[in-house]
Amino acid sequence: MKAIQYHRFGGPEVLEYVELPDPEPGPDEVLIETTAIGVNFPDIRERLGVYNRADTRVGGVTLPQVGGLQVVGHVVRSGSAAHDYLLGRKVMALMANGAYAQRAVARADMLVELADDADDVAMASVACQGVTAYLALRVCTTLRRGESVLVHGAAGGVGSLAVQIARMLGAGMIIGTASSDDKRAFALSLGADHAIGYDYPRWPETVLHYTEGKGVDVILETIGGEVFDQNFTCLGMLGRCIVIGSTQGPGEALAPRRLMAKAQTLTGVYLPAFFQRPDMIQRALHFLRDGIAQGMIRPTVAARLPLSRTADAHAMLERREARGVIVLDPRA
Predict the structure, then answer these.
(1) Which residues contact 238 (CB under 8 A, 6 or more apart)?
(2) At what angle do helices 157-168 and 127-138 cross, to 10 degrees?
(3) What pairing do the DSSP bridges indicate for beta strands 103-107 and 29-39?
(4) Superfamily of domain 130-272 in the CATH hierarchy
(5) Rounded Cα gap, residues 12 and 298, in angstroms
(6) Whole-angstrom distance, CA of residue 153 vs CA of residue 145
(7) Which one, of 331, 302, 330, lies nearest residue 100 by Cα?
């Protein structure tokens, strides 16, 4: 089979288009002949070796590595008779690595069956980012009907899906932040009620204005830096702040006692930690599949490239040229 592999950390140039033997599924795994493969920013961080630094505390990468976290395809082999019922079925799967290949192994408890007429490209674009957004809103907190939510980076991969999921869950008000007029318009088109710039120094005052001084009930934090601290200016009583990322760095440490004044909660999401809770992964995948099928979640696919051009896909993401997910075609 053809696959994308790297033997050393570095830029997109370390990605090699190579011939490899088919991987063998273990007892609780299946082998998928892939039809569409999603590219995510964590793939880039793995390629750069960021996760192999002690200060990240998020695990490492064993070289050589076939990267990639999500695929759509058909099951062609099962590791045990218990999963033979999946043979020939179209599935969407989330995995720790190995997606950048014409055949990939996935755990049987971290995939969901798809209808034969499901859009492979659309489904391949949502697993990693969509599951993250779902876990933030339904597991790390429970967004209740009528509550307000502030989604930072609302035009990004996780943020754009979080806006749509929040709308599906009945949010009373959705405020999105983004760094440009174009991105803010995009967030509004997805269902946000308001869109503001997080780089505007007094943006928390705008949030307080929209919420009539109460502040928001839930914040999905992806920015970090000084924005992290500013969040607590506009987080309401019993508000919950869920940290998903920090594109501008971690920011200043938060004094825990600061949470006491309004009985607020601070928590975080790191997707691989949930691999030990496949029931939650399955729940999220089912939600995404059904939301797309019902037209309530509209995946944003920035580009579709052949598997052989994975390095180009990584370069586009690093240059921030892609609005949405890039999907690889392993058959092109």
Answers:
(1) 217, 262, 263, 264, 265
(2) 50
(3) antiparallel
(4) NAD(P)-binding Rossmann-like Domain (3.40.50.720)
(5) 29
(6) 22
(7) 330
Contact between 88 and 146 (Cβ < 8 Å): no
CATH topology of domain 2-125+299-329: Quinone Oxidoreductase; Chain A, domain 1 (3.90.180)
Stretch (H or E) spanning 279 = helix 278-293
Per-residue tens of pLDDT for the chain, all 332 residues: 999 999 999 999 999 999 999 999 999 999 999 999 999 989 998 999 988 777 666 778 999 999 999 999 999 999 999 999 999 999 999 999 999 999 999 999 999 999 999 999 999 999 999 999 999 999 999 999 999 999 999 998 899 999 999 999 999 999 999 989 999 999 999 999 999 999 888 999 999 999 999 999 999 999 988 999 999 999 999 999 999 988 777 777 888 888 999 999 999 999 999 999 999 999 999 999 999 999 999 999 989 999 999 999 999 988 877 778 899 999 98
d(CA 316, CA 125): 16
Peptide bond into 306 cis (omega under 30): no
Show the tokens assigned to 57.
């505390």
CA 50, 54, 58, 62 torsion-angle sign: positive
Whether residue 25 is preceded by a cis peptide bond, meaning omega within 30 degrees of 0, is no
* CA 170, chain centre distance (Å): 21
- Give the pTM: 0.94
C-alpha span between 233 and 40 (Å, rounded): 31
Where along the chain do its domains lie? 2-125+299-329, 130-272
Pairing label, strands 90-94, 70-78 = antiparallel
- Position of tokens 């062609």? 76
The DSSP letter of residue 214 is S
